[in-house]
Specification:
α1 runs antiparallel to α9. By secondary structure, the protein is of the alpha/beta class.
């Protein structure tokens, strides 16, 4: 199986469960926080902002963009994810959002057709993330803004395996009452194995992202490495340093979730 299809198979298996948790986010306090963040990032322009949610999954960001008055398109490589997004849109009565199955590395979208792009946890999952950035630059209109939220997950999962953390979590899953698909041992192992083989796993992010954006021609780029701490300062139980309870190696990339922003 080619890597792209292997990635697609993994995320498609998680689509229904993933959708369940995004609907929980929509019903909880995260909705207000994310809406305020997105509103502050939208570019100033006359008329309606044309927005693209890349890797839309269950449609979470697409719904918030629609609520903010944007003309919204959501794309995802997984048809199962698109099906979940469309089902959620119908249930929540968002008839105006366009959801399309599409490869973020090769977007079937016109040049300069969007004013705002947002993406979360996508670039670490694709074989050629540099092409995603190139496509974002291409489909953005002059003055358009891209927001990418991600982390050095390839390193995180590599270190989890090396430290024995993955093995401990798999054993805990087998003995525990919760049987989530995303934490099932075979799924965890597949996710880690995929992530470690992707080229981006060896990059020091977000510096890699910023350097690539400047090469593409973005006029302004910036990053925040402690993004989730800043976004949810009072989140109960949130650990600023990391999503994993293991020691990082000297010189290792930062494991916190970061946000990079670029203006065309």
């Amino acid at each position: 199986m080619q890597m792209q299809e292997r990635i697609n198979t993994y995320w498609s298996k998680r689509a229904e469960e993933f959708s369940h948790f995004r609907l929980m986010d929509l019903a909880g306090p995260q909705r207000t926080v994310w809406t305020a963040f997105i509103r502050a990032q939208l570019p100033s322009k006359e008329g309606i902002v044309r927005a693209l949610d890349t890797g839309t999954g269950a449609g979470f960001f697409a719904f918030l963009l629609a609520e903010l008055g944007c003309e919204t398109t959501g794309i995802d490589y997984s048809q199962d994810m698109i099906d979940q997004a469309e089902s959620n849109a119908a249930m929540l009565r968002y008839p105006s959002i366009r959801f399309v199955r599409m490869d973020a590395q090769h977007m079937e979208l016109e040049d300069g057709s969007f004013d705002f792009i947002i993406s979360r946890n996508v670039t670490w999952t694709v074989p050629e993330p540099e092409k995603v950035y190139a496509e974002w630059f291409r489909v953005l209109a002059p003055g358009g803004v891209v927001i990418n939220i991600d982390a050095n997950y390839g390193y995180v999962f590599k270190r989890a395996d090396e430290s024995g953390w993955t093995e401990k979590q798999n054993a805990k899953w087998k003995a525990g009452p919760e049987k989530l698909i995303g934490t099932r041992p075979d799924m965890v192992n597949e996710r880690n194995n995929i992530a470690k083989q992707l080229s981006i796993a060896g990059q020091n992010r977000p510096q890699w992202d910023l350097d690539g954006m400047l090469r593409l021609g973005f006029t302004e780029v910036s990053a925040r490495v402690d993004f989730m701490t800043a976004l949810f300062p009072a989140m109960k139980g949130f650990r600023p340093r990391g999503e994993q309870p293991f020691e990082t190696e000297p010189g290792a990339p930062d494991t916190r979730i970061f946000m990079v922003k670029g203006v065309k």
